[in-house]
Amino acid sequence: MAAGLQLMIIDDEPIVGKRLKRMFEKEGYAVETFLNGASAIEALEKKHFDIIVTDLMMGSVDGMKVLDTAVKKNAGTRVIIITGFGDQGTIDEALNKGASDFLIKPFKFEELYKAVKKAESGLKAT
Amino acid sequence: MQLKIWHKMIIGIAIPSLIALLGGLLAYGYITDVKNRQGFVMIADDMKEHVLEIRRNEKNLLLHKDVEYFKYCGDSISVLKNYLSNISPQSTAEIGESNFSELRNSIQMYSDTINNLYGQFQTETDVVEKVREEGRKLEAYIAAKKSNGELSTNFILNVRRLEKNYMLFRDKGSFIAFESAILTMKNIVPICYECIPYTQVAYSLSKAYNNSESLINELQATGVKLENITYGIAGKERSRINAFLNRTHTLLVAALILLCTIGPLLVYKTASYIVAPIKRLSDITKKITEGDLNQRAPLKEHDETYSLAMSFNTMLDQLQLTHHSLEQSIELLHEKQIEAEKRASLGFLISGVTHELNNPLNNISLTAESMREDINELTLEELKEYIQDILSQSERAKHIVSDLLEFVGTHKAAVMEKLDIINLIEEAASLVANQLRVSNINLKMDIPNAPFFINGSKSKLEEIFVNIMINAVHAMKSSGRITISARPDKEHKRIIIDISDTGCGIPEKDLKNIFEPFFTTKPSGEGTGLGLSVAHSLVMKHSGDISVQSKLGEGTTFTITLPGFEEGLL
Ligand SMILES: Nc1ncnc2c1ncn2[C@@H]1O[C@H](COP(=O)(O)OP(=O)(O)O)[C@@H](O)[C@H]1O
Ligand SMILES: [Mg+2]
């Protein structure tokens, strides 16, 4: 059981937030969802999140910006990118910036869960 | 005439030069003649001088009647003779043989006369001596005898005085006085034997005097003739020189006039002959620079420009060939570029479609997964919500696909019909009326009352206007105004429709992208980026035009132009 790890989910598709919140909460995470990058960054200012799952393309403040901010704020924060379309250039950019994983929609919950677990083990190691 | 440039130039230069040369040569000849004639004039002058010298001596001779002067005369005559014999035969011939022979004859005559005169003078002296002797004898006789009372001593003395006077003056007056005295003496003494010798010698004296007189006259006449001949020669030579000078003058003037008229004319003609073909080439070059590669130089002249024109044309042929192959290469390149662009936009399209479709797919799959996991825990309400989500996301995916098909134009063909665009705009506006009310947006219609017919598809045209109006609503968020105005343009048989909003406006950098498929600045679910690209392709399908004008923060205006109804296009 993930003992109350703080999980942030950002996606401008409301269904993604709703479903993932329910599923990750069942696994024991404390989950907060956001519909855009701006409000997520605002929340990051106030609170620490251990793992961030973010969409890439979301209007003016995109996932890449969230990644930058999160890494800058706390290098220990793990960021997992989920996106509808990712060319190799974008994937490489995100991984270079410190994203721990990159998932392309549609993904299975199983896959995202594994990615989160992997990030979690990285957290424990540090 | 078809001459080489070289020949043309020679003609142009040679003819004036020839004129100048000819004039110069003639003038030179004349001047040489003048120089020679000048020599003749000098000869004539010299002869004249000699003749004058002779005549001076003659005058002295006649004045003094002295033997010494005969010598002077003889000397000056031989000087002239000598001079004449020293004149070259050419000069003699040039001046005139007849002149010289006349001159020689006259000189001969003159010197003969002088000689005669000399002889006459000799005789005369003898006679004078005799007269004196007889006079003295008569005088002595009269003085001694005294018997002859008729002839007084005084009378005789008077006669002798007259005799002396006559001898002294040798003129007519004194001769007549002397002669009348002798005649008187005869009258006084008709038969006077003592008087006879005196009167006889007195008569022979008068005879001698008369002879001398006629010789002197002859001499003077010959002298005048001599003078005239030499004067004549000098005058003739002078007038010849003048004639030469006049001729030279005329010649030089004529040559000058010729040079000044024919020279420039020839040079001008030659120059234009030479330049004409070159000018033709340059005219052609100009036309070629203006893009007419079909121009060719005429092959008229058979001179140096002929080969120039030939090479020029060959060059043009090659140029045209190169130009042609270049054009082909450019066309090929262009095709390749279009190909590349097509591929790039296809890639863009695919990435857009992928992104747009993956989102609803992801939503469906996540919802389904969630249902599978929690099927036993979910309430009926929750289940209903999940099913509704799956249905709406499927619907969304379906829309994306049909928009896409619409964009690429493979969707069901639009049915074109004659329809009133004004009425259609009103209907399209009513479709979004509800949304406008909710968003607190004001709609202003500025459309004509009369219908305006076009060829079009009702559903497609509605889609165009709805897409644009929905974008306007998104751009304004809470409140604002949309204005739709339609202006028929009778002249061009078309209608111009403006759809303006008071929204956020479009940044300059985005303006060129908004009609691209999948270009969107909106979050997922809210915009697919297909609205304007579909509107664009639909307007094109109606043979119309769509453009945009926007100012950031103030608003955006889309302008659609559609052609009016035409029977043949249905
Ligand atoms: N009226 C408007 N005012 C401001 N921006 C507009 C307007 N219409 C279109 N846009 C811009 O053009 C983009 C493309 O529009 P569109 O093709 O309809 O796609 P979507 O609306 O799905 O984003 C929009 O995302 C928006 O940025
Ligand atoms: Mg749109």
Provide structural commentary.
- The complex is a heterodimer of chains A (126) and B (570).
- Chain A has helices spanning 14-26, 37-46, 63-73, 88-97, 109-125, and strands at 6-10, 30-34, 51-55, 78-83, 101-104.
- Helices cover 48% and strands 20% of the residues of chain A.
- In chain A, helix 2 runs parallel beside helix 3.
- Chain A is α/β, with parallel strands linked by helices.
- Chain A has a single domain, classed as Rossmann fold.
- In chain A, helix 4 (88-97) links the parallel strand 4 (78-83) and strand 5.
- Chain B has 570 residues and is an alpha+beta fold.
- Chain B has 3 domains: 5-254, no CATH class; 324-411, Helix Hairpins, CATH 1.10.287.130; 413-563, Heat Shock Protein 90 (2-Layer Sandwich), CATH 3.30.565.
- Helix content of chain B is 73%, strand content 8%.
- Chain B has 13 helices and 7 strands.
- In chain B, the strands form 2 sheets. In chain B, strands 2-4-5-7-6 form a 5-stranded mixed sheet, with helices on one face.
- In chain B, a hairpin with a 4-residue loop joins strand 4 and strand 5.
- In chain B, helix 8 (304-374) packs antiparallel against helix 9.
- The longest helix of chain B has 94 residues, at 196-289.
- The interface between A and B is medium-sized, with 28 and 27 residues.
- The complex binds adenosine-5'-diphosphate (ADP) and magnesium ion.
- The site of adenosine-5'-diphosphate has 22 residues of chain B, from helix 11 and helix 13.
